[in-house]
Inverse folding.
């Protein structure tokens, strides 16, 4: 081993002379504002504010459509909370909470056309909902019975991706395929792809490479970064020195920051971005500026790295509350509607719970099935041997 | 004698190494305030500061690649990879740079980097959190690969790995993190690249490493009831393999069962089998057997009891060997 050299390491952290865009003071972010460029259509107080660039993309959202979005938000939050509870009760090995990110996901998910394709990370329960994946289909991953049971082709919703950033290249490749097949243009069947990832993921090489490829091949892909301010214990400023949406410029495409707690703005901005991609003006990077209101996963302990005040600050920007206030105060929606959604969410939660408890454990065959498309003699032999061994215990 | 969990033993080992040498750095995702997702680095940033315990951006290629650069500059970085399945974004840096720099530079550029990887299954996790990729590293020339199996070894091995001028891939059996053992803080430790007989015996040799060592010891206890006296060897070092004690043992017992969680084809276990039949052919009373994971991706966790080598599967192999 080489001898210690003449270098004295600092014992405490050297304070940075340069406050980052989202500077942290003792674990509490100095700002929870998205900045001047933030696109917002519905304020935290439930007030509809005009935006000349994006209003037209939300023009069709009448009272009924807004009620539908509200319903989405409530139901998604409800089954997410149920997932958390099921983990606490030992029914799930882990749960990845979505709390606080409902609007970012419903806005994006509802902006998609049926022929579009989504590549999610692992927290996209709201996008799954919008793509028509039944919430019970998400349970197997977290209960340990499967790695994703829905059909990615039929739903236009790819399997969850746990390795951070991996899906950005896959999404880009898929989008290149859409382009190669002539599905980009003004036609009614033109297509786009949307790729979901977190602020932490933007540090991965795969995400950078995805941006490069998408740019040079003009791939019709919307990169949708949910900046929920944290990557487990690491704040956004541990990943970047500039606001994330500004990175797009360096790759040669548009980047935009939207209030990720404003479902209307997320819907409008994503519709615009998908349209840009469909018509050949993509890719586009969207940074949905939001907040993870719960732990990273049920295995995480956020009290170690962030202050409760930060959460309190963000509670004032709750994505559901502002829609409710707007529906009541500005649009005069009656209490019966909210009661109905409440009842519906209770029923969904009950169905979700029951399904979870009833899920059968897969047998040992599951290990050996579908490893290869063309089969494998080695795996087949192992299956036969193991099943014979396994059945030797029967009746013992 | 201290009684420590394996996680705490590694923590204490890291702390001792950092106290001894100011050039030792700890780097990885969440290793600072959070103390790592397994809390193995708990408290280190508080005591050594943010420039010796670096919460890095979320990028494994970045973690390994910058560690290589830091090592070129004279530091001794200890990188934490959060889970086995997440090392692959950094695999290129490990294979192309970390493993080869010393050789390429004809010794002018040593790269004393340790890459800590919690590995193996048995914790009920979602996919990519339970893999055993050690063969992929053991196959790469220029890397040294070790796996600890208990707190005492973990405490010493991490310090030896850090002191090594070679790059060391350091596998930690995550399902054993919370198991306690006596750690003699004043002992003269076993050298890093040495396997070790952990239970002497005469009728059959069981060789394993990492998480399955405990299973092997349990199997040896259980086999006693059947009158079998098993010798258990902890391989500890997977590259280079230290097979001397295994050869000696097999020459006495005539039988060998190798146990590992990784898939069997072209694995570390396969290599042990091949070498033993080369060296001990005339002493063997039975074919060398392997008890391993299957040649499939790691299954959903509700299947892992079937996937992982358990007491029954080890005893079944012992019976087959003894019955030869
Ligand atoms: C390649 C890789 N490294 C590490 C991890 C462990 N890990 C899981 S989630 C996570 C943080 C991700 O943060 P971010 O990208 O911001 O997404 P968020 O979870 O906040 O939505 C980490 C480090 C992983 N899954 N994959």
């Amino acid at each position: 081993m080489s001898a210690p050299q003449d270098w004295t390491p600092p014992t405490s952290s050297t304070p940075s002379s340069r406050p980052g865009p989202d500077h942290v003071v003792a674990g509490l972010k100095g700002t929870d504002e998205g900045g001047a460029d933030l696109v917002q259509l519905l304020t935290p107080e439930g007030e509809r504010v005009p935006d000349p660039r994006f209003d037209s993309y939300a023009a069709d959202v009448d009272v009924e459509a807004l009620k539908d979005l509200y319903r989405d938000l409530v139901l998604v939050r409800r089954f997410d909370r149920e997932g958390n509870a099921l983990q606490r009760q030992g029914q799930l090995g882990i749960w990845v909470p979505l709390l606080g990110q409902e609007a970012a996901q419903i806005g994006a998910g509802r902006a998609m056309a049926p022929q579009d394709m989504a590549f999610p990370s692992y927290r996209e329960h709201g996008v799954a909902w919008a793509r028509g994946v039944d919430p019970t289909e998400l349970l197997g991953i977290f209960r340990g019975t499967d790695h994703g049971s829905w059909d990615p082709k039929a739903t236009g919703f790819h399997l969850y991706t746990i390795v951070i950033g991996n899906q950005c290249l896959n999404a880009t490749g898929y989008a290149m395929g859409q382009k190669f097949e002539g599905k980009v243009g003004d036609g009614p069947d033109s297509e786009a792809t949307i790729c979901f990832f977190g602020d932490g993921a933007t540090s991965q090489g795969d995400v950078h490479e995805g941006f490069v490829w998408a740019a040079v091949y003009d791939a019709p892909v919307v990169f949708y970064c949910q900046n929920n301010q944290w990557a487990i214990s690491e704040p956004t400023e541990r990943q970047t020195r500039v606001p994330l949406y500004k990175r797009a410029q360096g790759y040669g495409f548009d980047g935009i920051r939207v209030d990720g707690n404003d479902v209307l703005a997320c819907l409008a901005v994503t519709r615009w971005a998908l349209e840009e991609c469909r018509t050949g003006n993509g890719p586009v990077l969207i940074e949905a500026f939001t907040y993870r209101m719960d732990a990273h996963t049920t295995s995480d302990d956020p009290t170690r790295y962030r202050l409760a005040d930060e959460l309190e600050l963000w509670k004032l920007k709750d994505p559901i509350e502002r829609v409710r206030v707007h529906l009541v105060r500005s649009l005069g929606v009656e209490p019966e509607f909210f009661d109905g959604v409440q009842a519906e969410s209770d029923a969904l939660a009950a169905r979700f719970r029951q399904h979870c408890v009833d899920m059968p454990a897969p047998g040992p065959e599951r290990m050996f099935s579908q490893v290869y498309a063309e089969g494998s003699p080695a795996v087949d032999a192992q299956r036969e041997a193991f099943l014979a061994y396994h059945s030797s215990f029967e009746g013992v | 004698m201290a009684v420590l969990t394996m996680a705490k033993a590694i923590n204490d080992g890291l702390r001792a190494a950092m106290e001894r040498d100011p050039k030792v750095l700890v780097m990885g995702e969440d290793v600072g305030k959070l103390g790592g997702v397994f809390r193995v680095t708990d408290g280190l940033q508080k005591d050594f500061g943010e420039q010796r315990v670096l919460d890095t951006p979320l990028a494994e290629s970045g973690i390994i690649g910058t560690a290589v650069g830091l090592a070129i500059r004279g530091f001794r970085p200890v990188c934490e990879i959060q889970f086995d399945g997440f090392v692959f974004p950094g695999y290129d840096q490990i294979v192309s740079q970390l493993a080869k720099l010393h050789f390429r530079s004809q010794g002018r550029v040593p790269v004393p980097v340790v890459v800590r990887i919690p590995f193996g299954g048995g914790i009920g996790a979602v996919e990519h959190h339970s893999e055993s990729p050690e063969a992929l590293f053991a196959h790469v020339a220029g890397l040294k690969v070790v796996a600890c199996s208990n707190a005492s070894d973990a405490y010493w091995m991490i310090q030896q790995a850090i002191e090594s001028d070679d790059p060391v891939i350091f596998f930690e059996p995550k399902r054993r993190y919370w198991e306690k053992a006596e750690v003699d803080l004043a002992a003269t430790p076993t050298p890093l690249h040495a396997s070790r007989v952990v239970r002497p015996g005469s009728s059959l040799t069981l060789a394993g490493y990492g998480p399955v060592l405990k299973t092997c010891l349990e199997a040896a206890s259980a086999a006693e009831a059947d009158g079998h006296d098993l010798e258990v060897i902890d391989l500890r070092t997977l590259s280079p393999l230290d097979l001397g004690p295994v050869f000696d043992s097999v020459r006495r017992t005539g039988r060998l069962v190798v146990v590992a969680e990784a898939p069997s084809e072209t694995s570390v276990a396969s290599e042990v089998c091949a070498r033993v039949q080369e060296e001990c052919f005339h002493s063997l009373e039975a074919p060398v057997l392997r008890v391993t994971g299957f040649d499939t991706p790691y299954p959903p966790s509700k299947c892992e009891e079937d996937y992982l080598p358990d007491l029954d599967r080890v005893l079944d192999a012992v019976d087959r060997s003894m019955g030869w």
Notes: Residues A 123, 162-164, 197-201, 226, 228, 230-232, 292, 296; B 29, 58, 60, 82, 86, 89 surround thiamine diphosphate (CB under 6 Å).
